[in-house]
Design goal:
Length: 443
């Protein structure tokens, strides 16, 4: 009888791709993937450990699996992902019901680990991070019409607040030929939207080709005939070149959407973060992007409460947000991560102060989003249909302005049949009461 495996995944799309590669290996080894703890033999918890909230969620998920094991509902627990890599010893010690802890370099060995735990063998495996498979067949966990395409892993930027380099290792690009081959396979399987991901997509190629190859990669992806949309995430501001902007401006398949995690606007804070720039240079970059690509939608993430952020630095950040008028913005209170340089900095900001500052930023950003959204009323946008809500008798989907799971939606009606994944023209009629979503009708 086939061993039944439930996989519960947390964290970012990069972690999701790791999971999808593991799922394919499990299916090929005749494990039966299930979607509920009831009846599962093994629960695999694929964890995140980027910030404190992510760690808490991962730990809660492991404890939930432990409760099911205690009740005899499941038999074994395997912990994978970033939390496993970062807290390899603590997990076994604090949650003894766990049967295996695998670092990210051990993802390749997920099948062997499953066999071992079913034979009552405890497994603890932490090979070099570089053994993490970047290529390989995947069992997609996204809807068929879009897929994430990882072009690199690891990070060499070494921001002082970030634990990713210690968890994932140095930046490693994939060979361009392998990326193109995978993209073609994803499109043949039904994906009309490909979302490029890495810790820093704008660094692609610098390690293996000794020069930035992102613009060239984008041009080659645009040659894939059935591919309709290409979306870029995680673009480091220092590496947004004129060449990249030219490719984005001239290639219709590349969505006019750019995700630029900026983190702060104070020169003092950015320097302490081991990042470059200041308020003026960042505003100049934003102006240059918008001048070259007038319809561009800009998304960013920023952080409040970094060590040394006094009222002056916070005011600089607030002014920057108000002047930049990002279309999409996420704000997070600083999380003091052990093992990072920033964790030992003096002038740590009170967590409650950091949280309050975050709320102030988001309140101001809400007004910006509401105003920006009004500009879309009367326009017709191409929208990929993602689902149907029977209660409201409406479809919902995304236009070029919105990435899956992190951005807003377009809610619309249609008097003709639509399938999930279809891209249809929608006339925008209003802004929803939430201020974030748009309302329209298919034309």
């Amino acid at each position: 009888m086939a061993v039944k495996v439930l996989v519960y995944s947390l964290g970012c799309p990069k972690n999701q791709v790791d999971l999808e590669i593991m799922l394919k290996k499990l299916e090929a080894a005749n494990f039966l993937l299930v979607e509920d703890f009831q009846g599962a033999d093994i629960a695999i918890v694929n964890t995140c450990a980027f910030i404190e909230d992510a760690k808490k969620e991962s730990i809660e998920s492991i404890l939930e699996a432990a409760d099911y094991k205690s009740d005899g509902i499941i038999k074994k627990i395997i912990v994978t992902g970033c939390l496993a890599e970062r807290y390899r010893d603590e997990i076994f010690k604090e949650i003894p019901l766990v049967d295996a802890v695998l670092g990210i370099g051990a993802n390749e060995d997920i099948v062997a680990a499953c066999h071992a735990v079913m034979e009552n063998t405890k497994v603890k495996s932490f090979p070099p991070k570089e053994k993490l498979p970047l290529d390989g067949s995947r069992t997609l966990t996204t809807p068929r019409h879009y897929a994430y395409l990882r072009i690199a892993d690891g990070c060499s930027n070494h921001c002082s607040f970030c634990a990713i380099p210690s968890i994932r290792g140095a930046f490693r690009s994939r060979q361009m030929e392998n990326i193109i081959e995978e993209a073609k396979a994803l499109v043949e399987d039904g994906a009309s939207e490909i979302i490029l991901i890495a810790q820093d997509t704008t660094r692609y190629g610098e390690d293996i080709y000794k020069e930035n190859k992102l613009p060239e990669l984008l041009l080659k992806l645009c040659e894939i005939e059935k591919l309709k949309w290409i979306r870029l995430l995680y673009c480091y501001p220092d590496r947004i070149s004129d060449e990249l902007l030219e490719v984005m401006a001239t290639q219709s398949k590349i969505l006019k959407y750019l995700d630029i995690p900026i983190q702060h606007a104070s020169e003092k804070i950015l320097k302490a973060m081991n990042r470059k720039g200041d308020k003026d240079s960042l505003l100049s970059l934003i102006e240059k992007i918008r001048n070259r690509i007038p319809d561009i939608v800009l998304r960013t993430t920023i952080m409040t409460g970094f060590p040394g952020e006094a009222e002056e630095e916070f005011n600089t950040l607030s002014e920057f947000v108000n002047e930049a008028r990002f279309d999409r913005l996420g704000c997070f209170a600083y999380s003091r991560e052990e093992g990072t340089p920033a964790s030992s900095f003096e002038n740590q900001v009170d967590p409650e102060t950091a949280k309050n500052r975050c709320e102030i930023i988001m309140e101001g950003q809400y007004n910006i989003v509401c105003e920006n959204n009004k500009k879309h009323i009367g326009k017709t946008l191409d929208v990929v249909m993602e689902g149907y809500d029977g209660y409201s008798d409406c479809f919902y989907g995304r236009a070029y302005m919105d990435a899956p799971d992190i951005d807003a939606q377009i809610i619309f009606t249609s008097n003709y049949h639509i399938e999930q994944g279809d891209i249809v023209p929608v006339n925008i009629l209003a802004v929803a009461e939430t201020g974030y979503d748009l309302i329209g009708e298919a034309v």
